[in-house]
């Protein structure tokens, strides 16, 4: 077996002679010393090669190492405040591995399009590396949160016979002699079957939306986590969402400070941002949010401030646009939950409030200076009402017969929500574009690599 230690464990190995295996991230030399920066996937380590401390072959090996060449290095771990990370390796020998051809990504600035064309290599660079490690922490935290609360992990199918979130964004594919199949837009409807069988479940998987949108917040393939709970109402859903966000962002604060520091150049800004969502969330009815927005845009227009050409003034009854969500959340320090949206802008399965029949028992969690990261609702549990909605939305009833059965056999109040993983990663890491929040993004113009 190949003996090796990992960079992330260096603090426990001070004074020991160890071997690291990895790739050359960068190097510099000063006189009779060479500094090699090795990356091994868990971190970066400065390796110090002194001409008078190694044999000639080892010193010469340094010249052979081009950027991203593979190598193993043996030496003694020492604590130092001169190297990033606080530890370095005092080298005694080097073993060369495969030499890298001229590497297309150099320390100079490249455009994002160029980097995206080389995404398979770009993932080795420090910002994508830090982003993916934060994503990993969020995924593990998501599973742990639900596991600790006795939710069953309930996988929903990706090939489905019916739409869940409107028919305009379906990817379709021919399915043998059975007709058309659609890539799942949401696992929710299956999650509801799960909630009736297991009480509380969560679906966590890839979802697909054939949106022809080029915004910075839309992917055509993304990951969504969707809890669904029997005997839970809208209020319960809002509480669960708040606890959930506190838990998973809390894990990032505990485990990923050094990755956050890579992303904000050590300013501490990202930690501060994360701390904002650890506070109690604001909650407001759609009508209240609408009033605030009217005033906000009145003031903006009166001030003569120029608004972008894509800006469309919010009108009562509309869903919020991206500008409205950013505006609304800029007024608060913590996330804002807006509830009771007009039923007309929301999905067919949402229950209406009996006291306000034009409003859905819906909620969106809007993050500071960003907007929607979670969308959820209490579900329509009455068979006749649900049938009406299916008709109003011109959905094919036959495809929903199995879903309607959930209302025929012991229907109970239930609720749930969906959190878009990449939206959250984008917010935590303060990325310019959601495409950087997933290893290999699928957007309107990109299916490579
Ligand atoms: O608001 P959405 O469409 O809600 C649902 O799909 C429900 N079935 C969820 C549920 O109640 N179980 O999507 C939920 C979340 C959004 O808040 C957003 O974070 C993310 O999924 N999302 C997207 N993320 C990236 N790209 C897209 N095109 C997204 N569409 C939605
Ligand atoms: Mg939504």
Strand order of the largest sheet: 6-10-11-18-17-16-13-12
* Count of folded domains: 2
Q: Mean of residue pLDDT?
A: 96
- The rounded distance between the terminal residues' Cα atoms is 33 Å
Overall morphology: elongated
Oligomer: single chain
Which stretches are poorly predicted, pLDDT < 50 over at least 5 residues?
A: none
> Remind me, CATH topology of the largest domain?
BirA Bifunctional Protein, domain 2
State the helix count.
13
Cα-based radius of gyration, to the nearest Å: 26 Å
Find the count of extended strands (DSSP E, 2+ residues): 18
- Structural class call reads alpha+beta
Ligand roster? 4-amino-1,4-dioxobutan-2-aminium adenosine-5'-monophosphate, magnesium ion
The helicity comes to 25-40%
CATH superfamily of the largest domain: Bira Bifunctional Protein, Domain 2
Strand content: 25-35%
The CATH architecture name of the largest domain reads: 2-Layer Sandwich
Largest sheet: 8 strands, mixed
Q: Can you tag this structure with a few keywords?
A:
alpha+beta; OB fold (Dihydrolipoamide Acetyltransferase, E2P); eight-stranded mixed β-sheet; 32% helix; binds 4-amino-1,4-dioxobutan-2-aminium adenosine-5'-monophosphate; binds magnesium ion
């Amino acid at each position: 077996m190949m003996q090796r230690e990992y960079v992330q464990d260096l603090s426990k190995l001070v004074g020991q002679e160890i071997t690291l295996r990895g790739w050359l991230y960068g190097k510099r030399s000063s006189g009779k010393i060479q500094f090699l920066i090795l990356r091994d996937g868990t971190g970066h380590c400065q390796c110090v090669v002194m001409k008078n401390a190694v044999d000639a072959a080892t010193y010469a090996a340094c010249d052979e190492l081009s950027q991203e060449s593979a190598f193993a290095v043996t030496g003694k771990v020492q604590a130092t405040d001169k190297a990033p990370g606080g530890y370095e390796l005092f080298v005694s020998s080097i073993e060369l591995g495969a030499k890298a051809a001229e590497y297309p990504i150099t320390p100079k600035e490249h455009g994002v399009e160029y980097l995206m064309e080389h995404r398979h290599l770009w993932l080795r660079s420090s910002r994508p590396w830090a982003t993916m490690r934060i994503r990993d922490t969020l995924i593990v935290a998501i599973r742990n949160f639900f596991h600790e609360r006795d939710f069953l992990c309930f996988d929903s199918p990706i090939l489905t016979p019916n739409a869940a979130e409107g028919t305009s964004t379906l990817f379709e594919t021919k399915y043998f002699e059975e007709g058309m199949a659609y890539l799942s837009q949401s696992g929710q409807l299956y999650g509801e079957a799960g909630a009736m069988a297991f009480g509380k479940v969560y679906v966590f998987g890839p979802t697909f939306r054939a949106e022809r949108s080029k915004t910075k917040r839309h992917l055509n393939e993304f990951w969504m986590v969707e809890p669904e709970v029997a005997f839970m109402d809208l209020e319960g859903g809002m509480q669960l969402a708040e606890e959930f966000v506190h838990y998973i962002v809390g894990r990032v604060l505990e485990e990923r400070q050094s990755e956050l520091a890579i992303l904000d150049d050590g300013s501490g800004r990202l930690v501060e941002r994360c701390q904002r969502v650890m506070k109690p969330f604001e909650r407001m009815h759609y009508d209240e949010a609408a009033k605030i927005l009217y005033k906000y845009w009145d003031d903006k227009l009166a001030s003569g401030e120029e608004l972008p050409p894509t800006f469309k003034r919010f009108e009562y009854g509309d869903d919020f646009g991206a500008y409205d969500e950013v505006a609304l959340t800029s007024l608060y320090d913590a996330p804002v939950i807006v509830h009771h949206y007009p039923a007309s802008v929301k999905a067919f399965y949402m229950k209406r409030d009996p006291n306000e029949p034009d409003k859905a028992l819906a909620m969106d969690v809007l993050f500071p200076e960003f907007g929607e990261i979670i969308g959820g609702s209490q579900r329509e549990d009455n068979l006749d009402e649900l049938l009406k909605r299916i008709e109003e939305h011109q959905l094919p009833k036959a495809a929903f017969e199995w879903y309607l059965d959930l209302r025929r056999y012991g229907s109970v109040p239930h609720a749930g929500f969906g959190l878009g993983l990449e939206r959250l990663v984008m917010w935590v890491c303060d990325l310019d574009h959601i495409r950087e929040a997933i290893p290999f993004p699928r957007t309107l113009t990109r299916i490579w690599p």
